[in-house]
User: What shape does this take?
Amino acid sequence: MKTKEELLKIYSVLLPYELGLNIENEVETDYTMFLGEMDSIMPGNAVLAGITKETSYMPECILYTRNDGEADGYIQIKNVKPILYSMDMLTKPIEHKGERFIPVDKFEIGDDDSGIEYDHGNIGLIKDLESISKHNSYHDVQFLPYEVVQRLISWHFNVFGLDESEYIKKKI
Assistant: This one.
């Protein structure tokens, strides 16, 4: 299990990428009245919109935007789970921003030369990604080129090794 501080660091890295969140239970909060919001936050899906620091009147919180048109708000980190792809999805079709594709295919150099070529070669990179996928492991992610890891983060992959109890597996 990750600590609250580790989770906040992970969420801060994912902040620019419109990470999906799942608000698990209806949450009664004593600080919502201060913020002028509802007395309770209903379960459902939302998008990560920010992170607040702990203050004298409010704990560290996740700022979210609701997918269902409900009010945006704040919620304690313990009441949300990110929605991420597990690493075994690297070789399977995923959907991101309306586009459906197989992630490893994005690293192949084709005739149209739209791919990026990496220092140690794309064939080696694809083999590494396939191995990571086969073993559903994040441990070898640290050896991938920075640009590849950044792209996996933007596609909402669990590159941080969150335990299965700490996130919702994104499915197609």
